Amino acid sequence: MKLFYPRLTLATLTLLQSNSFACEDLIEISQSDLQALLPPSPIWNDTKSVRDFVVLDSDLTTPAEFSNFQETATYEQVTDFFIHLAEDSPYVQLSSIAKLANGEDVWLVIVSGEEQFDSKDMVNPVVYATAGIHPGESSGVNAGMMFIRNLVTKEEYKSILGSINFLFVPIMNVQGYLRQSPSSRINQYGPNTSGRRANGSWKNLNRDFAKLDTPEVRAVVGVMRDFDVSFYTDMHSTDGMNYQPDVTWCDNGDAGLSNEIYAWLRTEMQPELQTFLEEEYNHITGVCYDANDPMDPTAGYYPYFSDGATY
Ligand SMILES: *[C@@H]1O[C@H](CO)[C@@H](O)[C@H](O)[C@H]1NC(C)=O
Ligand SMILES: *[C@@H]1O[C@H](CO)[C@@H](O)[C@H](O)[C@H]1NC(C)=O
Ligand SMILES: *[C@@H]1O[C@H](CO)[C@@H](O)[C@H](O)[C@H]1NC(C)=O
After folding, report:
1. pTM of the entire structure?
2. What is the whole-number distance in angstroms between the Cα of residue 134 and the centre of ligand 3?
3. What family is it from (predicted)?
4. Residue 124 sits in which domain range?
5. Could you say which ligand is closest to the alpha carbon of residue 215?
6. Residues 169/78, Cβ–Cβ less than 8 Å
7. pLDDT single digits (tens) 107-120
């Protein structure tokens, strides 16, 4: 795939601003040329985890696995995958939680080892995850497909399947996700296409959890009203920041609503999860952080906690 980028000279910028640049001002550059400009991608010693999670010989192999993680599944492929899985497995149900302007669905996948798909019939705790709120950050979309497939088809996951109900919104920002382009996220390593950050009306859904202006976020929050959710996580990837940890998280920190939840996250969940990911899978884990000044890494970093209910 070849992309055409304007030569970034002062003259071209002036031409761009005046909206009248000529073809000779354009240079041809490929996605790999662009990635070559980035600092080298850290090498992950992933000998164990790849063997553990990837399935290559199934009609439920995902596009990410087929392409050696060069591609992200499209909206249509995600839809077909979960329709197929729901038909095949008694533990999976697919439902639409919102119909968008052009008729697309925001999907909710309900995975229940108890085979209960109505909140009032569920006994086991409910874990809820959403992905694709920022469509340029599609790791969670593809990982969620692999996770649910493995959860309902592999013997070694039986005990997890038997102890939780798992709710998953694979693509929250459907209209942003539909706009796959090789040039959406040239500032980061990742699949060879990425969607657009904003929704169909240029709203960043990750700023709407307090106001609930958008039908997408209203639907996702509605799931928390309809089910007795014990744990919720929203999956992002990097927005271009390049740092050593390859698995990061953030929560409300000590600014959240409950001191007890904060204490549990820090003293129970975080140490256990970190030990597991680092010792079992050679990941480098850490809290998600952001630069104090994005143009000057020497100005330091701060832990990126969610700021109250907005995010
Ligand atoms: C990769 O991980 C394995 C298993 O943990 C370890 O034995 C090996 O030395 C590691 N290799 C590198 C290059 O870090
Ligand atoms: C992305 O990668 C896949 C698999 O390598 C390839 O078939 C496809 O053409 C690539 N798409 C783009 C836009 O580069
Ligand atoms: C995006 O956000 C706007 C503003 O709240 C909303 O009107 C619209 O329905 C949302 N979704 C799409 C697909 O545009």
Report:
1. 0.86
2. 14
3. Belongs to the peptidase M14 family.
4. 44-239
5. 3
6. no
7. 999 999 999 999 99
